[in-house]
Each structure stands twice: as structure tokens, then as C-alpha cells.
Design goal:
The protein folds into 3 domains: about 110 residues, no CATH class; about 70 residues, no CATH class; about 150 residues, 3-Layer(aba) Sandwich (Rossmann fold). It is built from 11 helices and 16 strands. Helix 8 crosses helix 9.
Length: about 375
């Protein structure tokens, strides 16, 4: 596989997995995609999580913590050979030690869809790469004339037919349009059932972007950690070129601080961190990002006193920050992890941005009431 980290392909992010899927399709190589359809109880991954398996037995990503990997690989290779999608249910609550081995411990029932990586994936993969969310509807079980694996893709309220799959009838799509509307642009997954037909509603959203303004050495751990958790990263340096060989960003630019906004594409899916360590440059970048973009989050590195100095500088130039502006700013930036090493600071900041992008507060899970993840199961009832 062209993008696989051969030392640890299991750590692939959603961004990495999509890149590899596009690469395999372009190369005409056979592969299978395993997707979690539903979870009853608890499990390591949630509905919508995916794993990619190539014909040469390489795997990429994960749908469990590893306890079902061999079983999923066997199913995937059968799907690759037969070109027919399959659904499988693994009951890890019963934990049949003779079948699965000792102590799986996920304490849940997991339903998987394993399907060929065929031309039906081309349209949704291209759409999310272009920054457009799509909803993929796939029949996972059927007692009707609509065969398993039938697929329709929805984007901007328009149904898109795909190659290599039967189309889901319009009347069936219309019957669960409310579910599609709820799932679209949320990166969530639900299943719905009607007249013996079960359909997976899979919301695919573009990869979140992280814009880093700065050019000092501390941008390296920031970009590295951001890439490791799946952000698409861009570094914009206001003073001097950045050593591209040492900064693992997806793209890098150099230019005046006021040019930073030109690197914001889909604003609502972009998060920014200002960390040039130059007060004037930071002020210009902050002012530009607030006035010229609608990004939901802008982290500013430095202590409160420095941020107050930045705000005072804006006031002197008659550029007062509004309440709405301040609501988008995190200063000081980062979660309170207590570390002071450069990589610890980067981890604090990337963790906060990840929490914000997932609409979370970033607190300790042991203090959270209720389930860790939202329960997105059948449309008619929760898990």
C-alpha cells in the first residue's frame, strides 16, 4: 500500500485511510472495506469506523482493538475473491473462548459490513477530498428485491447513482430522508430498517484542517501531532522560509501575516493556532483571521498578559475585539496538562483543538456521566 506506515498501519487515521483507498482505486488494485454498522453495548470503535484490507493481505486501520482482526481479514479476502458484500455479527458479550480465544472483553455485539473497494466508492471519496460532505446509504441486509450492497450517495439533497452497485429505490430513500438529514455533515452513522431491508446511513465529512501560523522550531511537534490524529495541516510562516524536510505538514507557505487567511478553505472545518512568538505578526494574523474568515476556533499561544498586550495593540488601531470574536479565541491556548516540554505543549494544544472539533470539553472521562460516545444505532431506538 502506497501510504501505509509499514511499522504501524493500525494507527492509520481516517484521513490516511481515505488517501489509501483513493490510491488503491487509482492503481486498480483489489481491496475490501470493513465498516462497523452497529454496536450493542460497548466496543473499542463506534459505528462508521473502517478498516481497509488489500488483496495482498495488508490491513490498514482498525474496527476493534485487534481481537477480531484475523476473523475480519478472512472475511475480507473472501469478499475480495467473490466481489460480494457480507455482513457479520460478532457477539463479544458471550465471549465463546473456543471460537474467539480468551477474554476479548469488549462486552458488546458488533455488526460489520465487509464490501469490495469498487467504483461505488469513487464519488464519495472524491467529494470529501474536495471539501464536500456526503451521505452514503448502503443496504446491509435485505429480504426484498433490493440486493445487499445496493448503494446511493446523497450530496446537497441530490441523489447520486454510483457504479458497480444497484441503486436503492427512490421510495426507500424518501422513507428515511429525516435520518439522512440528521446524519449528513455530522460524521455519524445510523441504521434504519423498513420492510425487511436494513440500510446503513454513513455520514462522511471532509478531514478537519489545522492552520498553524508560525515559523519557529516548535511548529514541528505541533504539525507532527496534528497529522498523527488526522488533521490536514498547513503552516504559514510570516518571517522566513520553513525547513520542509523537518516539518511534517501537508503544505507550507511563506508570506506576510495578513496573507494567512488565504489558506483557509472551508472555514467551518478549519481551526487555527497563532504561534509566531512575534507580537506584531501574531496581532496581524489574529486580526486577519477574525475579520476575513469564519473559523470557529483561534488559539493564541502565550500567557494572558501577552494576549492583553495584543488586544491593547488592536485597540490603539481602532480594531476592537467583539464578544463574538472573543468567543472564537482560546488564549492561553491548550488543555491544562501541566507539561512544559515542547512536545507536551504541542500535545496540550492539539488535544484542545481535537476536543473542540469533536464538540467536547476535554475533561477526564472518569468524570463524564453517561456513555463516552453518543449512541447512534437504529433510527427507531437508541442502543
Amino acid at each position: 500500500m502506497s501510504h501505509v506506515d509499514t511499522d504501524d498501519p493500525w494507527s492509520a487515521t481516517e484521513k490516511d485511510l481515505r488517501e489509501e483507498m483513493r490510491s488503491l482505486r487509482k492503481a486498480g488494485q483489489r481491496a475490501a472495506v470493513a465498516t462497523i454498522v452497529s454496536v450493542e453495548g460497548s466496543a473499542y470503535r463506534r459505528p462508521g469506523a473502517k478498516m481497509l484490507i488489500s488483496a495482498d493481505k495488508d490491513s490498514y486501520g482498525a474496527v476493534t482493538a485487534g481481537c477480531l482482526e484475523d476473523a475480519v481479514l478472512d472475511i475480507a479476502h473472501d469478499v475480495i475473491d467473490t466481489h460480494e458484500p457480507r455482513t457479520e455479527v460478532f457477539d463479544l458479550i458471550q465471549d465463546d473462548t473456543e471460537t474467539w480465544g480468551l477474554g476479548l472483553g469488549c462486552n458488546g455485539v458488533i455488526e460489520l459490513l465487509v464490501e469490495p473497494l469498487d467504483a461505488s466508492w469513487d464519488y464519495p471519496l472524491t467529494a470529501v477530498a474536495d471539501g464536500d460532505p456526503v451521505t452514503v446509504a448502503t443496504v446491509t441486509d435485505s429480504e426484498s428485491s433490493t440486493p445487499k450492497g445496493s448503494r446511493t450517495v446523497i450530496m446537497n439533497d441530490t441523489q447520486q447513482n454510483v457504479n458497480n452497485r444497484h441503486k436503492i429505490p427512490n421510495e426507500l430513500i424518501d422513507s428515511f430522508s429525516d435520518t439522512i438529514e440528521r446524519v449528513h455533515s455530522t460524521n455519524q452513522t445510523q441504521i434504519t430498517q423498513l420492510d425487511g431491508t436494513q440500510i446503513l446511513i454513513d455520514g462522511l465529512t471532509p478531514t478537519a484542517n489545522l492552520l498553524i501560523f508560525g515559523g519557529q522550531k516548535d511548529i514541528t511537534p505541533m504539525a507532527k501531532l496534528a497529522n498523527q490524529v488526522g488533521f490536514t495541516t498547513h503552516v504559514h510562516s510570516g518571517r522566513g522560509a520553513v525547513d520542509r524536510s523537518s516539518v511534517p505538514a501537508d503544505s507550507i507557505s511563506t508570506g506576510h501575516p495578513t496573507e494567512v487567511a488565504t489558506h483557509v478553505g472551508n472555514a467551518e472545518n478549519t481551526y487555527a493556532i497563532v504561534m509566531s512568538h512575534n507580537l506584531l505578526d501574531d496581532r496581524l494574523a489574529v486580526e486577519t483571521l477574525l475579520s476575513e474568515t469564519e473559523i470557529p476556533y483561534l488559539g493564541v499561544m502565550g500567557p494572558r498578559e501577552r494576549f492583553k498586550e495584543l488586544c491593547d495593540s488592536l485597540l490603539k488601531d481602532n480594531a476592537q475585539l467583539t464578544t463574538a470574536d472573543l468567543d472564537r479565541i482560546a488564549a492561553p491556548v491548550g488543555l491544562d496538562l501541566g507539561g512544559g516540554e515542547p512536545v507536551e505543549i504541542a500535545l496540550s494544544i492539539v488535544s484542545e483543538i481535537l476536543a473542540v472539533s469533536n464538540d467536547r470539553e476535554g475533561g477526564q472521562l472518569c468524570e463524564r456521566t453517561g456513555p463516552i460516545h453518543s449512541r447512534t444505532g437504529e433510527d427507531s431506538n437508541s442502543e
